[in-house]
Amino acid sequence: MKRRLFFYTILFITIVVVTFYLYIGIAFGNGVAKMGKSVHNVQKEWKENKEEPLDTIKDLVVKKLDSVN
């Protein structure tokens, strides 16, 4: 009986840990994808407007940091 309980306890903990890391991985991946998409849009704007990249990067970083807080 104790062995079976131990086995199911380890199985449960493993499932919980794997699910947690999977959730974190998906959330992080989605965040990186969104950020990459906005950087791509900014690069398109640079080509169209022939702007200086440094100012636009500063604005993008400030906007991202403000959205986090």
Task: Please tell me about this protein's structure.
The protein is an all-alpha fold and 69 residues long. It has one domain. Helices cover 93% and strands 0% of the residues. α1 runs antiparallel to α2. The protein is rod-shaped. The protein starts with a helix and ends with a helix.
How many β-strand runs?
0
Q: How large is the share of residues in beta strands?
A: under 5%
- Kindly state the percentage of residues in helix: over 70%
Element string (H = helix, E = strand):
HH
Q: What would you call the structural class?
A: mainly alpha
Largest sheet: none
What does the average pLDDT come to? 82
Catalogue the unreliable spans.
none
Principal-axes geometry comes out as rod-shaped
Cα gyration radius (Å) = 22 Å
Enumerate how many helices there are, as a single number: 2
User: Number of folding domains?
Assistant: 1
Instruction: Calculate the terminal CA-CA distance, rounded to whole Å.
Output: 51 Å
